[in-house]
Write a structure and sequence with these properties.
Strand content of chain B: 25-35%
Number of strands of chain A: 4
Radius of gyration of chain A: 20 Å
Oligomer: heterodimer
Order of helices and strands of chain A: HHHHEEEHHHHEHHH
CATH class of the largest domain in chain B: Alpha Beta
InterPro entries (chain B): AAA+_ATPase, ABC_branched_ATPase_LivF/BraG, ABC_transporter-like_ATP-bd, ABC_transporter-like_CS, BCAA_Transport_ATP-bd_LivF, P-loop_NTPase
Largest sheet of chain B: 6 strands, mixed
CATH topology of the largest domain in chain B: Rossmann fold
Largest interface: A-B, 21 and 30 residues
Family (chain B): Belongs to the ABC transporter superfamily.
GO molecular function (chain B): ATP binding
CATH topology of chain A: ABC transporter involved in vitamin B12 uptake, BtuC
CATH architecture of chain A: Orthogonal Bundle
Pfam family, one (chain B): ABC_tran
Keywords (chain B): Amino-acid transport, ATP-binding, Nucleotide-binding, Transport
Chain lengths: ~300, ~230
């Protein structure tokens, strides 16, 4: 294989890695939007809190002398998912439910307030500086090249792929097959009607916040390990990127969020690889502007058509 | 079965129902007729608790439900076929039916589903089709089927004939008659006054938020005022 094509594959691998985590976070935005038609601006913070919780769990286990990696990872994952899910639930209860049904700006403002509150809470509790995240999964394998350029996939990247794939499959099955998943779809199409069937729509809304938060927590652990450090603003840019991914794919559409995340990740890594790393955010947000101009419903979003 | 006592309902500051009293007895078909904007849908939605009555009482099977949550009311043996059908257009026919039987066990759902398919063989043919792609008549059948899935004692229908072809309307009214034979109490709101009163044991005429007339279906059909106002003279 030529060096140029190796380089391309390497960028593709890097892009898909980042993209799949964007997709995980984007699902939280898209599900909440699909059900209540609002953007959960505190979602990035929920993801950040997931990363911090995972780090605290890892540190705690290390203090206890646990060194078996799979155990550490599973405990960290479970802790992150539980704490973030609780946060997702609390955000809905505190920032959304009391103002639901009011003017659209009001929940928007309360969600941004929630986001600022959570960010500053972590600032106070954990300090503002970067905290190193242990690189627990190291090494990788080379798929070609020589001494000048070596194409490689790290085990960490593979972990990210596999975990994301498992989460996405589980979510798709849950939404398409399970009773609660069916109720989520019904509520997103006609909340009032679902209520008229006796369904406690508040619970379904809370469930979507919790599911989104749990996936964000998984992404938090993965990206914390991938980047090797976290800080209280960790959720801000990732949140914006994931939001972009959700809009790109069509907000409200779960496959759209997955696709949007991958496209965004790949276009960022291609920009970094062929132009300059400094331009990658220009490209992501440029994509957002283009999609809003030319296809505001996103790639897989459909305009609402009702048959009377 | 269902009693409304001097019910007042507001939308914001505007009063839509000015003290309405209606009774639907077990096993009856009761029709409520009235012009556009008379408050028919408001009356039905008040029964469902959305919006709630501002004063007066709503009693369902002996229990005061005036202040209950919609989701609790709709789980106590009553179901609704709302105005405009409101099927879940992105869900398949079968999934829509399953939403109707959300709180029942799997075997109950299977039984109710078969029963609905007997009433509407058309729905079985379309089982795996998305509800939004079906015709208006088929969607109306689905909305009725969905309401039957929870095995209700009473079913409320809001303008089931709206926008449908005469042949389909005839079919829908036949089904409503069948519901009575199965022992389901029916509370029917219609603009199609002739057919609604023909089928009904008793009827109410609602005008601008007040009950104007109340009699048996036959008597209302024969009433000259009703004939002038609602039956085209």
């Amino acid at each position: 294989m030529s060096e140029a094509s190796l380089y391309f594959i390497q960028q593709l691998v890097n892009g898909l890695t980042i993209g799949s985590t964007y997709a995980l976070i984007a699902i939280g935005y898209t599900m909440v939007y699909g059900i209540i038609g609002m953007i959960n601006f505190a979602h990035g913070e929920i993801y950040m809190i997931g990363a911090y919780t995972a780090l605290i769990a890892i540190t705690g286990l290390a203090t206890l002398g646990v060194s078996w990696l799979p155990l550490i990872l599973i405990v960290a994952l479970v802790c992150a998912v539980i704490v973030s899910s609780a946060m997702g639930w609390a955000v809905e209860r505190a920032a959304y439910r009391p103002v639901r049904g009011r003017h659209r700006l009001i929940p928007l403002i309360s969600a941004i307030g929630m986001s600022i509150f959570l960010q500053n809470y972590v600032h106070l509790a954990q300090g503002s500086r970067n905290i190193g995240f242990p690189l627990m999964i190291q090494g990788g394998f080379d798929f070609g090249g020589d001494d000048t350029f070596r194409g490689s996939i790290s085990y960490m990247q593979m972990t990210i792929f596999v975990t994301t794939l498992i989460c996405m499959t589980a979510l798709s099955l849950f939404i398409s097959r399970s009773r609660i998943g069916r109720a989520c779809r019904a509520v997103s199409q006609d909340l009032g009607m679902a209520n008229l069937l006796g369904i406690d729509t508040n619970r379904i809304i809370a469930a979507t916040f919790v599911i989104g938060a749990a996936l964000a927590a998984v992404a938090g652990l993965l990206l914390g390990m991938y980047y090797g450090s976290i800080d209280p603003l960790f959720g801000f840019i990732a949140g914006l990127k994931a939001f972009t991914a959700a809009v790109l794919g069509g907000i409200g559409s779960i496959p759209g969020a997955m696709l949007g995340g991958l496209i965004l990740g790949v276009s960022e890594s291609m920009t970094s690889g062929y132009i300059s790393g400094a331009y990658k955010d220009v490209v992501s947000f440029g994509l957002l502007i283009l999609i809003l101009l030319f296809k505001p419903t996103g790639l897989l979003g459909k305009p609402e058509v009702e048959k009377i | 079965m269902l009693v409304l006592e001097d019910v007042h309902t507001h939308y914001g500051k505007i009063e839509a129902l000015h003290g309405v009293s209606v009774e639907v007895k077990k096993g009856e078909i009761v029709s409520l007729i009235g012009a556009n904007g008379a408050g028919k849908t408001t009356l039905l939605m008040t029964v469902c608790g959305n919006p709630q009555a501002t004063s007066g009482r709503v009693i369902l099977q002996g229990r005061d439900i005036t202040r209950d949550l919609t989701s609790n009311i709709m789980r106590s043996g009553i179901s609704i076929v709302p105005e405009g059908r409101r099927v879940f257009s992105g869900l398949t026919v079968e999934e829509n039916l399953h939403m109707g039987g959300f709180f029942n066990t799997k075997s109950e759902i299977r039984k109710s589903q078969e029963h609905v398919y007997e009433l509407f063989p058309r729905l079985k043919e379309r089982e795996h089709q998305r509800a939004g792609t079906m015709s208006g008549g088929e969607q109306q059948m689905l909305a009725i089927g969905r309401a039957l899935m929870s095995k209700p004692n009473m079913i409320i229908l809001d303008e089931p004939s709206l926008g449908l072809a005469p042949l389909v309307i005839k079919q829908i009214f036949e089904i409503i008659g069948k519901l009575r034979e199965e022992g389901i109490t029916v509370f029917l709101v219609e603009q199609n006054a002739h057919q609604a009163l023909n089928l009904a044991d008793r009827g109410y005429v609602l005008e601008t938020g007040r009950i104007r007339l109340h009699d048996t279906g036959k008597n209302l059909l024969a009433n000259p005022d009703v004939q002038n106002a609602y039956l085209g003279g």
